[in-house]
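Summary of Year 1 activities. Much of the first year was spent building the evaluation harness for sequence design. The harness presents a backbone, in tokenized form, and records the residue chosen at every position. We chose the following record to illustrate the format because it has been used consistently in internal testing since the harness was completed.
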């Protein structure tokens, strides 16, 4: 009977012992404690990275060196997206162009005026898009294609950097196995962006109500909005890496999130700056590419009005979207590899 009592007591204590062990392990891996100032010696970690421009060049060189793989990949997913989801509406674009031509002729003058119109048209497209509200099935196809582009790019880069000879079709056929785990991490990523969404909605409401005209209320709003944005950025910094880690064979979402959190601890700001730089490069690229195409489209259709039906800009936006997705996945993966390599260096 005493033996049975000891066994029962041991079984009762086992979950609590395991919990204490996990908490102790977590504290060892994460030196920060809530509401306590962490000493720099406890969280300072090395992270040797190339400069912003140099690392961007490395990403571009890697993709260009393997262009025979990634260009067909972009074409395949662009075709799939155009068939399953559709491209932007040429009618919507023509209506925007016509409206801007009617209202902007008095504002913009000369050659610079044409650039100003094209820039304003680009802002309108970026803000409202060229497509109507997508159906449920189109949204589903968009999510699936996005996950597959990400998985295929990561799978190809992982094998290329391991000096394996691969083809584009190898990635198409082999990269999709962790799609469920990647979807779950992506879902968490979207949830982590809710504070930024709340700040955006709050900004729209505050602008409409005149709350931002000045005073203490405006100051308090901006403080809350900035804190919400910081919260989201703090969370998603590690989730970007989790989207890479979860593609490893046998990796579970919770384990990927835990590993990614351990990787960025003490380096979060430096990694976040790299990710913000990635977004800046994408925005600048869209501006540099799209505005000349808008001018070209305007010039061609001004000379030959019968070509108004050609969806030049919607096709350009589709290709840019796919290329940007592949480039961003490559950027995050190569950044992840730099962090892994830095951890592997002898202390």
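For this record, the design step produced the sequence shown next.
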């Amino acid at each position: 009977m005493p033996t049975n009592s000891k066994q029962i007591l041991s079984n009762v204590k086992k979950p609590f012992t395991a919990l204490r062990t996990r908490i102790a392990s977590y504290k060892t891996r994460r030196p920060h404690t809530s509401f306590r100032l962490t000493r720099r010696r406890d969280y300072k970690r090395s992270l040797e990275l190339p400069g912003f421009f140099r690392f961007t060049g490395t990403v571009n060189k890697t993709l260009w060196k393997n262009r025979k793989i990634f260009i067909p990949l972009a074409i395949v997913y662009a075709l799939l997206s155009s068939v399953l989801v559709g491209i932007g509406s040429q009618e919507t674009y023509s209506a925007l162009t016509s409206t801007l031509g009617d209202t902007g002729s008095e504002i913009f003058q000369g050659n610079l005026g044409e650039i100003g119109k094209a820039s304003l048209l680009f802002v309108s497209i970026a803000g409202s898009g060229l497509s109507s509200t997508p159906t449920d099935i189109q949204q589903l196809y968009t999510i699936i294609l996005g996950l597959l582009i990400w998985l295929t790019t990561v799978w190809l880069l992982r094998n290329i950097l391991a000096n394996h000879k691969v083809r584009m079709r190898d990635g198409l056929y082999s990269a999709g196995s962790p799609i469920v785990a990647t979807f779950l991490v992506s879902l968490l990523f979207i949830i982590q962006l809710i504070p930024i969404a709340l700040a955006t909605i709050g900004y729209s409401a505050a602008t409409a109500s005149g709350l931002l005209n000045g005073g203490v209320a405006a100051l308090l709003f901006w403080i809350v909005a900035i804190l919400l944005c910081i919260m989201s950025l703090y969370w998603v910094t590690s989730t970007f890496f989790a989207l890479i880690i979860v593609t490893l064979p046998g990796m579970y979402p919770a384990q990927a999130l835990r590993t990614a959190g351990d990787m960025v601890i003490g380096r979060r700001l430096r990694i976040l700056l790299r990710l913000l730089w990635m977004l800046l490069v994408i925005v600048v690229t869209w501006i540099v590419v799209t505005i000349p195409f808008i001018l070209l489209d305007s010039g061609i259709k001004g000379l030959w009005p019968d070509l108004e039906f050609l969806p030049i800009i919607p096709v350009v936006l589709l290709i840019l979207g796919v290329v940007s997705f592949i480039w961003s996945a490559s950027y995050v993966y190569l950044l992840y590899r730099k962090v892994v390599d830095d951890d592997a260096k002898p202390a």
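The two ends are 54 Å apart (CA to CA). Quantitative recovery figures across the full test set are reported in Table 2.
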